[in-house]
Design goal:
Layout lengths: L2 H41 L40 H4 L24 H12 L8 E4 L6 E10 L2 E10 L5 E8 L10 H8 L4 E8 L5 E11 L5 E18 L4 E9 L7 E10 L4 H10 L1 E2 H5 L3 H10 L4 E5 L1
Antiparallel strand pairs: 1-2, 2-3, 3-4, 4-9, 5-6, 5-10, 6-7, 7-8, 7-9, 8-11
Length: 320
């Protein structure tokens, strides 16, 4: 093939490619008007007005999105051991605020600003200290304000719930492992100040260590105003062994629980709840796992109360 023929051949191939490209461009250009209307129709909300209300945008506005800012991680925690609540878990010392009023807070009356102010005062925090706030898992209308303090094995927490629509307090919960710097709250004081409980529920069992027994006890107070107070203690108490017959060798065991904390009781833990009525879940739990005081200690709540006010340190002994 001569050079001229090669040039003509290349020229004809180039023209063919140009023509093909032009045809493809022209083809896309002529078909695009027919595609655009179909896209516009499917994307225009007015063409499907009935689907707009049922669009899945509602879950994005649920309560899982908290309106509260995160708690600063670097803020200096208060010296809880020097706080008023370390001296007295139940009362600020105000004669006008006795349980079920707690550190100025009243369930069904106090608002969110008062909740934060009371907690800051109780734990010795400054007015600018940021407390934990968020949404409660107990219901879509409830939010929480909380404070937590941990030092080694010691811990303490305050939790409050309030109605997000009315900003009114619905529940106060306090829990502590009785840190060494805190004054423990003994059952005898509670009985003397609050009177006879409407019910007392107990779990008593031997621990893995045969020289200790675990006592889990709850005092229930429920008023005519449908407010309730639950006082709960969890402690390990020593088990005493005694030989009843040497041959064959038999033992008896007993454990003593004193309302004022003696003899030595180990691993104290205490919590209480003040709320507008008793949660049915609590009652179900008691019936399922606890036994009445009458069954465990053969003592009625009234008799327990009478011993608390008549004796300096009444002790209950259980033989098993």
């Amino acid at each position: 093939m001569s050079g001229l023929q090669r040039m003509l051949c290349l020229l004809s191939i180039s023209l063919a490619l140009i023509t093909l490209t032009a045809c493809q461009t022209s083809s896309r250009g002529t078909t695009s008007p027919t595609v655009e209307p179909s896209v516009a129709v499917t994307m225009t909300p007015s063409s499907t007005p009935t689907t707009v209300p049922s669009a899945t945008v509602i879950p994005t506005s649920t309560i899982t999105v908290t309106p509260y800012p995160p708690t600063p991680e670097l803020q200096t925690p208060p010296d809880w051991c020097a706080a008023p609540i370390a001296r007295d878990l139940l009362s600020s010392g105000d004669a006008e605020c006795q349980l079920p009023c707690w550190y100025g807070l009243r369930v069904g009356e106090s608002n969110v600003e008062e909740i934060q102010s009371a907690i800051r005062f109780a734990v010795g925090a400054s007015d600018t200290y940021v407390l934990n706030m968020g949404q409660s898992a107990s219901g879509p209308d409830l939010d929480i304000v909380t404070f937590d303090w941990v030092s080694g094995v010691d811990n303490f927490s305050i939790g409050t719930r309030f109605n997000r629509h009315s900003d009114i307090l619905t529940e106060i919960h306090l829990g502590t492992s009785f840190p060494s710097c805190a004054q423990p709250t003994m059952p005898q004081r509670v009985l003397r100040e609050l009177g006879e409980p409407s019910a007392v529920w107990v779990i008593f069992q031997i621990t893995e260590r045969t020289d200790l027994a675990s006592l889990d006890i709850t005092f229930v107070y429920s008023s005519e105003a449908e407010q309730s107070i639950l006082m709960h203690w969890l402690t390990n108490i020593p088990v005493h062994w005694a030989t009843t017959t040497p041959v064959p060798l038999q033992h008896s065991r007993s454990a003593t629980w004193c309302l004022n904390g003696a003899p030595l009781q180990i691993e104290h833990g205490m919590n209480f709840t003040i709320s507008s009525g008793i949660d049915p879940d609590y009652i179900d739990t008691w019936k399922k796992f606890y036994a009445p005081l009458e069954v465990v200690f053969q003592l009625t709540p009234k008799e327990l109360y009478e011993r608390a006010i008549q004796e300096n340190n009444p002790c209950l002994t259980l033989e098993f």
